[in-house]
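Notebook, p. 212. Picked up where the previous page left off. The plan for this session was modest: take the two constructs that came back from the sequencing core last week, fold each one, and keep the raw output in the notebook itself so nobody has to go hunting through shared drives later. Recording the first one now, exactly as returned: residue sequence, then the C-alpha cell string.
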Amino acid sequence: MEGVKSRRAQYAEMTRAAVLDSARELFVQRGYDTTSVDDIAKSSQVSKGAIYHHFADKKELFAQLLTDVQQQAMRAVTAAAEATDSEWERALAAAQTYLRGHVENPEARSIVRQAASVLNHDRICEIDEEVALPFIRDTLGRLGGAGMLQPLHIPTTARMILSVLVDATLQIAESDDPATAYTEVDKVLVALVSGLLRSPESA
C-alpha cells in the first residue's frame, strides 16, 4: 500500500511539474491573457481536471510561477552570500545577486513584468515577503550583531529594503536594456544600503 501511495505521489509531482513548465513557457511566449487553461492542458498533456487538482485557477498557477522565480533567485542569493568574508560583503553580494538573476533570466523578467497585471498588490507582497523577507531580516541582524548597523528597527528596515529590491527588479524587468538598468539601480542600491551603516569606514 505504501508503494502505491509513493507511486501516486510521484505521479502527482510529475504532473504538477509538467503543468508549471508548460504554463511558464506559454505565459512567456504568448502572455498570460492570451493563454488558456486548455492551452496549458494540451501543452502539458494532462487533463484540465488534473490542473485544477493542483491549482485553484490560472491566476494561482501564475502565482506559483512567480514564487518559483523568487525562490530561484533566493537560492542564488544564499550561495553568493555564503561565499563572502564579511557581513557587509554578504549583504551587498546578496542584493546584487538577486537583481542580476533577473538580468540574466529572460523568463524571470517576463513573469515579474506580467505579475502586476495578473495578481493584486497584496498577493505579490505576500509572495515577496514569504520568500525574501526572512533572509533580509537575518542579514540585518548579522550586520547589527557585528556592530555595523545603525540603531534601526529591523522588521521595518527589512520591509523597506524589500520594497526597494522589488521596485528595482521591476525596473530591470520592464527595461529594453536590462544590463544598463541593473547598473543604474545597483548604484542607487549601494548608496541606500550604505546609509544604514554606522559609518562609511564600516563598509
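Okay, moving on. Second construct, recorded in the same format:
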Amino acid sequence: MAMKLVFQGGEGPQYTLHDGSCSIGSALDNDIPLGQEGIEPLHCELLVGSHGVRLHVPAGVRVLVNDRPVDGLIALRENDVLGLAGVRIRLVDVGDQSPRALLGQASIERGELNATMVRPVIPKFALRAVSGSMFGRSLPLQASLTVGRAEEAGLRIPLDCISRQHARLTPAGNEVLVEDLGSANGTWINGKRITRASAAHGDEISFDKERFQLLVPGQPVVMPKRSRRVGSTRWPWLLAALLAGAALATWLIL
C-alpha cells in the first residue's frame, strides 16, 4: 500500500513516499526541508520498503508519534501522526481522498472543507547558518526579513553582539538586497563590511560573527564565497613594517 505525508497545519505540500529513504530536517539537502524553529538539520528519516514504513529517530532528537515521544527505529501505521517541533504530519494512504487527508486537521477545524486548495509556494531563497548559535538551521526567505536581537525580528538572534534591529534582507529578482540598519558590529557579505549591497546564491552573509549562506533551493550547494575580512590582513603588514623600521634604525646607529 502506497503512503503519503500530509501536513496537518499546511506547512508543506503532500509528499508521496517511495521505496527507499525520506529525510526530514532543516538542512536544504533533505527530501523534506523544514525551516521551523526547533527542527534539527536531520530531524528524522522514513524508511520505505516491503516491511512498510519505519521511522528512524537520531539519538537526542525529539519526535512524537501520536503525541508520545519515540526514539530509535519503529514501525508506523496508517493514520499515525508525527510531531516534529510543533509540525504535525499524518501518514495516510495515497488513495485516501477524505477531507482529513486532503486538507489536514487544521483546515478542518477552521471549517475549510469547501476551500480551494492552494499549492504552497516554494521559497526562492533560504538562509543556512554555517556558524554560531544557529549552526545547521535553515530559514526560508520569501519576503523582506529583519534580523536582530529584538523579539519582533523575523530572524531573531538573541546575542549581545547583535543589535536589536541589525539588518534587513529583501529578495529582489535573482538577488537579495542586504541593508545594515546601523548595527554596532556590522553586516558583512563574503568578508566585506557593507551598508547596502546585493547577495546571490552561495554568498556568505554575516551579522557580526553569526554567519549564514544564501542558497537557492534546487541549486547545488556550493562552498561559501568567504574572503578574509579587511582587518585580518593588517597585522602581518604592520609587523613587517615594524621589523623593517627596527632594522633600519639599527643600521643607522651602527
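Notes on construct two before I forget. The two ends are 93 Å apart (CA to CA).
Flagging for discussion at group meeting.
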